[in-house]
Amino acid sequence: MPTSEDSLVSIETEPTPPNLPRPASLTALFWAISGIALQGFGGVLAVVQRELVEKKQWLTTEEFVEDWAVSQIMPGPNVVNLALIIGDRYFGWRGALVALAGMLTFPLFVVMALTIGLAGIGHLPTVQGALRGMGAVSAGLIAGTGIRLVPALRSNAMGTLACTLIAGLVFIAIAFLRVPLAWTLLGIGLPAFFWALHRIRTLSTGPKELV
Predict the structure, then answer these.
(1) pTM, whole model, 2 decimals?
(2) pLDDT digits (tens, 9 = 90+) for 81-97
(3) Which among 88, 85, 54, 57 has a CA at the least distance from the CA of 69?
């Protein structure tokens, strides 16, 4: 019969799961980020989640949620911050610069062309109605992606109940009470940070107490 030592050895030598795919080169990173940028007409969150998590699988759903959260609380556009994080993760500061270039280069030309094209017709009711319609589509894309990311909270260290409560409080503060983002981060985000830190420490020390 196998002894406890044999079972311990079998557990320690169990193969680890393969690493996630990653961009093969800086060039591949540039074109991948450029493709995301050119698709992000208002619904960047939906495009980024589909491309990086579902198609390329550079990030797990949990990693994407965490990186997107960091991108949101940093100054600057969310998707640009996320591109910097991803580029730096794989290629250091060179990757961050390449990802930034991919995120801004082609959209810059598109925005300039649209600005020139809409300069004389932007006041027309038809054009304004079309832009309002695009805004509604953008809101739907963001809401749909947010719902798809909810299952990732099951593995969050804070626990499902705490995550649900925090999300509800933030929604009420922003959507109904019109609390400024800075005060929302201080009033809800800061306690959430300390609670998550407490939970991580508790979970990390828990197995040691059982040994």
Answers:
(1) 0.66
(2) 999 999 999 999 999 99
(3) 85
